[in-house]
Amino acid sequence: MTLYTQATQRLAVLDRRETGYQYALSDIPFDGAAAPGRFFADDFLRDVGVPTDVIAREDLREPLQWALAVAHCEAFQVQEELILWFDEVERARLGDSRSIRLLVEEEAKHALGFERFAQALKTRHPEWLAAYERGFAESRAVFGRKHDAAQFPSPSAYHHMFWLLVLHFEEYTVWVEQRLRGAGAQPAWVELHRLHRIEELQHLATDSVLLTALEVSRELRAAHARGLLATLAANFWHYVPVHPARVVLAAHFGVELKPTAPMTRLGFWREVCQSPVFKRTRELLAYLDPKEVPPAPAA
Ligand SMILES: [Fe+2]
Ligand SMILES: [Fe+2]
Q1: How much distance in Å is there from the Cα of 51 to the middle of ligand 1?
Q2: How many angstroms separate the alpha carbon of residue 171 from the centre of ligand 2?
Q3: To pair with 92 at 20 to 30 A between CA atoms, which of 170, 243, 256, 291?
Q4: Which ligand is nearest to the CA of 206?
């Protein structure tokens, strides 16, 4: 039986949505994936903690950009496959909401799209691939971890923690797309993320209602928000997948890449605290005592 019994009216409204927003896998310009070009703007790299002297080095530009781009595709794919896995094992408790069905169908398509794009990108630099794969495997072990339902006090609590992580991840994917606009990035890369964002905005509306629809105490919502914050801060370069690039730069360029500051002192955290893109992550963090949420760092 479904656990989503609280916001039934809001879920019913979402369930009646039109699906004209959807795109097809064939809309993604995979042919352009291996074309030269940049994937991330310098200010994005600074915001996620890459040191400016590394960003400025001409010889490191391609390995850094390449590894970060492949890692984003594969990290998105892994997170989306986690949603497919969760749907498979928890189908009965998720219920038969059309919104959840649409979300799952769309994530299956996204996972395929990011996988294909990653494969095309990988052909650009076979010489760095082994180091990249080592780094990505380490990151995947952290952010791709499946929670154990038995560690939660109730099935609703388990579902709540799951959607909370999904919601933040989806806002992150929308943020990445936003930061590509006007950044002169490779056109196929920009289009891949532009299409993805359209469906993610629908998912965010769904996640948000699903989180409210679960019968979970305020205390538990706060504990999960605390958990989200601690998990992100402790594993920042795995969740924002810079770590594989770090392994490539160490193995092939003798550069030891270190973040310029802890997560809550980076531009990324300022964006989480202030950007409209992260408004739903902020709604989750609002369950905490304000003293528990580090303030946005100065610009
Ligand atoms: Fe997605
Ligand atoms: Fe999504």
Answers
A1: 29
A2: 9
A3: 170
A4: 2
Q: What length is written for the chain?
A: 299
pLDDT in tens, 30-67: 999 988 889 999 999 999 999 999 999 999 999 999 99
Residue type, 58: E
- Nearest ligand to residue 200 Cα: 2
Cβ atoms 6, 215 nearer than 8 A: yes
Cα of 83 from ligand 2 centre, angstroms: 9
**Residue 199 Cα, ligand 2 centroid: separation in angstroms?**
7
Nearest ligand to the C-alpha of residue 170?
2
Q: Which structural domains are found in the chain, ordered by start?
A: 38-292 (1.10.620)
Rounded Cα–Cα distance for residues 272 and 281 (Å): 7
| C-beta separation of 25 from 38 below 8 A | no
pLDDT tens profile 232-268? 999 999 999 999 999 999 999 999 999 999 999 999 9
Is this prediction's pTM over 0.85? yes
What do you get for the CA distance between the two ends of the chain, in Å? 48
Rounded to whole angstroms, the Cα distance separating 277 from 270 reads 12
For helices 155-180 and 187-213, angle between their N-to-C axes, nearest 10 degrees: 150
HSE, CB side, 13 Å, CA atoms: give it for residue 158. Answer: 17
